[in-house]
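Hi again,

Forgot to attach this to my earlier email, sorry! This is the prediction with adenosine-5'-diphosphate-glucose bound. I've pasted everything inline since the attachment limit keeps bouncing my files.
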Amino acid sequence: MSRLVAVSNRISVPKRGTAPGGLAVGLMAAMQARQGLWFGWDGETADVAAEGPAVTRKDGVTFASIDFDQTEYRDFYLGFCNGALWPLFHYFVDGFRYSDTQYEVYQRVNQRYARLLMPLLEPDDLIWVHDYHLFPLAQKLREAGATQPMGLFLHIPFPNIEVLRVLPVYGEILQSMLAYDVLGFQTETDRDAFRGAAAFVWGSQALTAGNTVTVGGRRVLTEVFPIGVDVDAIQREAVESLGSEVSKRMVTGLLGRKLMIGVDRLDYSKGLVERFKAYERFLETHPENQNRVTFMQIAPISRSDVRAYAEIRRDLEQTTGRTNGRFADTDWTPIRYLNRNFPHDVLMGFMRSALIGIVTPVRDGMNLVAKEFVAAQDPSDPGVLILSTLAGAARELTSAVLVNPYDSRGMAHAIQQAFNMPLAERRERHQAMLEVLRRNSIAAWHTSFVNTLESRATLQLKRRTG
Ligand code: ADQ
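Structure tokens for the complex follow:
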């Protein structure tokens, strides 16, 4: 069996006593099955980046991590990745900032990844690259002589060409994606957007049979692999952590009120400002429910060095202050807003204690929190998921209460509907969603991606050898 090499911008080396999130668990399982190597940035910056990667082995997987120097952190990570690609791919054209210097550093970092990874590769490896930070990596590896099969999975949406071509270098980015053998997307919409962009640049003859794109003799397969969760592991985590001190304190503090929970990185794509406003509207239009529900929003600060992130933080603090000032009672705070991280298992326990899970991004590749909320529920008395139609997850979780995150009246109504939903309906919706989650699990995601990559490799080998 070929070894699996995963490359992502951030890598997470498992630490004792912490429960990792869905993606890390999924990738670890895939790599453990194949004696894998995981290569990427360790999240640290240094005045001078170390030349070679630091290599450690843990739980049957080899981790090779690199650090960034200050320029790489500023121009690659904060700049081109999170100031240009992230907003544009989430349709925030207003928030998009382009600088050619940052783009040069983006190319340079991908070059450095390739240079440091090359000596670690073996001829039979399968190389699985993750996300928008590393679009040009396969091209750089190919230029350095790598012939191994390479696949890219894009965790975020792929935008329509009319948005994509706002990026001055969109043609180069698209061209570089052709160096992969497999391009994986979260939903059909994303895959179709990529194919639309390919047709725009190379003409409709580039769209070849079997979901492939062929340009200048290079053929790449475009496929949909919706990322999922491990339902049984989440069930276990949720049940076990209900008994923990932190869970008990959280539930005691509710004083018997119903809990509505939101769990997101503090990011403008997650629709938090819109969500807070909809909750305010719910309290306003359904005064009978004041003092009967507590909304707990967990949102650890992320990318705080990017200006747009500081702005959303300020907006949220203002909205929380206003709502709490307006509606709070001596023993009730309508919004509990926590800018901190919790271990994954604790979050799952919180989700199981909630009557409502509110997941309303204004744009999201998939959104694993929505899936985790469903998986964490007690099937005999499940909570209700309110889900944005603009999250990738809405394609699969059609039995959620679906909302448009910009429609605060509709969202206020959805909260009321969830609050009053009869048990039979909650169970029916939950059951339907659980079936989808079991089918499109995290194991199905990594197995089908790796198998697809492997079978492309076999096919190409057959073609080459006649
Ligand atoms: P993210 O934008 O980070 O991921 P999401 O999929 O919701 O979004 O969350 C990833 C993980 O982080 C989940 O396991 C979640 O439990 C955890 N997490 C979120 N908030 C947390 C908190 N406050 N404390 C601790 N853990 C928290 C990107 C894309 C998504 C896509 C994923 C996976 O933006 O669209 O679903 O990758 O492909």
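The chain has a mean pLDDT of 94. The two ends are 23 Å apart (CA to CA).

That should be everything now.

G.
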